[in-house]
Amino acid sequence: MDMRSGEVNFCVGDFMNERNVVVAGTLVAFGLAVGGFFIGNGLLRARSADRFVTVKGLAEREVAANLVIWPITYTVTADDLSTLQTRTDDGAAKIRAFLAGEFDDAEIGLTVPRVDDRQAQGMMRQARMERYVAESTVTVRSSRIDVVRAAMERTGELVKQGVALIRSYENTTEYLFTSLDEIKPEMIQEATKDARRAAQQFAEDSGSRVGGIRNAQQGYFSINDRDRFSPEFKKVRVVTTVQYFLEDN
Q1: Taken in order 10, 12, 18, 19, is the CA torsion positive or negative?
Q2: Of 16, 184, 193, 218, which sits with the fewest C-beta atoms within 10 Å of its C-beta?
Q3: Rounded to an integer, what distance in angstroms lies between the CA atom of residue 112 and that of residue 78?
Q4: For 198-237, what is each residue's pLDDT tens digit?
């Protein structure tokens, strides 16, 4: 700027410097504002991401067993092994004949006999006790539950024929449900819906609303007897664990 002769003149360079300063300041202010917006928005999102609820969903279903394994265990005794084997074979033949009218050969199996020597075990104290005892099992494996149960009620016929049936705690009748894959998708869906209902109730009580799923874990399926008196009926159960985001209303 030149003050001579009473004139005021501005230098072009000075003017440009002042304008650059203003522009730079404006840009800095704008940058700070935008940065603050994104930082604030990021913090808001972070807080929103931290808000979630973990709930469990349950699905239960009662089903009928579709496979039964029925072990028919019997014993024979003899003083020599040859006679013992003959009596074992005779008992198996009688059981097979008893089952033949209702079951196919593919449904019937015979296990290897378990033989005990009473003399070797120091049990020959009774005068009329035979030395050897064999325990054998004929196993029926069938999907026809009703037919098997009806045959069970007629096992007294085998006893009349001289077959010494015993109750074995090692070989017990099993009722199984083998069609889990057919009902698994529907049960998972039911459990997930149950979990969402629980999340919605929690959100309603806390003044929020349920958002998307943050994490989900499918529990293990369990199959148990409905009760100890009716093992032919099963209770299938699954529990899922789901985390839902919570959002403001």
Answers
A1: positive
A2: 16
A3: 17
A4: 999 999 998 899 999 999 998 899 999 999 999 999 999 9
